[in-house]
C-alpha cells in the first residue's frame, strides 16, 4: 500500500476542529464580477442611448469597488493599472463568518 499521499479525514458534522479535504473544490469555476456602480433607467432612455451617452452611477469617483463571486459580495478594492490592463487591489475582504451569515 502506497502511503506517500496522505489524505485528511473528515470528522463528524458539527464537531469542533473538523478537518476536511477540500482539494476537489480547487478546480470549480466561479463567476467573478467587479461592480463600479449601479443605476436605474427607463426603457425609453435605454432606447435613446448612442455612442457618447453617459450613464451616471450611484458611486462617487474614488470610492471602493465591490467584488462579487457568484453574485455574493466577498471583498472591496480599488482600481489599479497593471501593464495597460485594469486590475483590482483588494482593500477589504468580507470575513468567512460574514459570508456564511449572508448565505441563509
Automatic annotation (TrEMBL):
Location(s), subcellular: Cell membrane
Membrane association type: Peripheral membrane protein
Record's keyword annotation contains Nucleus: no
Domain Flagellar motor switch protein FliN-like C-terminal: from-to ranges: 25-94
Domain of life per record: Bacteria
Keyword list, A-Z: Cell membrane, Cell projection, Chemotaxis, Cilium, Flagellar rotation, Flagellum, Membrane
Signal peptide per UniProt: none
Record keyword Thylakoid present: no
One Pfam family it belongs to: FliMN_C
Family: Belongs to the FliN/MopA/SpaO family.
Name of this protein: Flagellar motor switch protein FliN
Organism for this UniProt entry: Geoalkalibacter halelectricus
Protein's gene: fliN
